[in-house]
Request: fold
Amino acid sequence: MEKELLQEDSQIIVIILIAILVLLLMAVALVLFFFFSRKKIIAAELEKANLALSYQKDLLHSTIETQEEERKRIAQDLHDAISAKLNVVSLSANVLIDGTLDKREQQQTLQHILSVTTRTLESSRRLAHNLLPPILENFGLQAAIEELCDEFISSKKVKVNYEIKYKDLLSKSNELHIFRIIQELLNNSVRHGKAENVILKIDDTNEQLDLEYVDNGDGFDTESVNKNKGIGLRNIESRVEILDGMLSYYSEIGNGVTFNISTKKT
Amino acid sequence: MELTKFLGYFSTVLLIINTVLYIKALHKSKAFMFFAFFLIISTIVQVSMSILGAILHLSNLYMVNVFLMLQFLLLSFFFKSLLKKNIILVFTALIIALLAYQYLQDLELFFRYNPIGIGITHSILVIYAISYLYQVLQKQKPKFLYVTIGLFLYLICNTLILASGNLVFNINISQEVYAILFRVNAVLYIIFQILIFIEWRKNYYKKIPKSL
Reply:
């Protein structure tokens, strides 16, 4: 057999065998390359999916947290503004029923009941108003934002310069998101930033809405806030995400904050 | 010579087993159907070639030529349903036309190997196989992955072996030496059949008892 292989004519068979071997090696290399690339690609995809999942989890957590915070606030408000005052009314009424008071005292107590009820009514109206301002539903986003800014101005805590040009660009539910974002920003400026001046500009071209918000408060460190975001900021982020908009903010400690939000027509 | 025969019979047995398994699950998909047809045709050709050549001692080379055309046609349709590209049909038509012209020009070609035809058809099938591998790079559980790899490995080497088939007629090489090539081919074919079996085992094995 070996002798035959060494014959001149048989040489060609040897060459063919070598060629087949080389081809086979290359083909196997290609198949191995395919399998390794596949492994890598699938691992990368998996990582991407995990990342998206953890982000979604985060979002869910912050939503629940916000909800709980809101409930706590409402409970506190109900307790302070309504229950406590109604208690006073009920006590006074009991005193009246006992009938131990003279005419003048009765009159006084009734007067007191009346004033407390009026204030309670006012508080409950304000509470409901804060939860969902009726003006937004009835008169639209522009009026609602203007009223919100005016409320802050009249509280004397902060001066708000606003310039709002808005014409029904967004859907009702998205308008509420914009309103909530501004509410959150103003609350943050007053509560955390202790700002004195706020500039709010909303511009509405036909295609998109641009919002610029600047205050002169304490500001925050954007580096550290990236690692550990407060509920307020996360809330704004998720709302912008729902709007499918773009959010950018800039801040330095002691130099106030600047927020820019733009969103497309919906 | 005994080894050559053994490898030949062994690969035929594997082919028959695979064919039976694939026929049982014939209705799975279009690609599956074309592949099963390819196996059926392979079995028929393989068995009839054995009968013609080994038992009746008649020339069976023209069957190889017919088989190669059918193989190209069925595997083209197989890849067409996997890759979902209509251009494959255009290629197939062009090449079938070319082959038809070639054979009509020289009818004697049926009784020799056709290196040009083998080269072209096999290369195109190899390109289809690589395209399919590229396409499933990202898929989690691709169908026909093992079959495609088997086809790819087998066709690449088989091209050279079949294309050099005419050497037997031209130069003075002993049957003994030439048989080495056939053994290599048979071993590759057995690997191909094993991969087909793995494909069936991985993707279709569990589903069969349900349909019975």
Remarks:
- Chain A has seven helices and five strands.
- Residues 11-98 of chain A form the longest helix (88 residues).
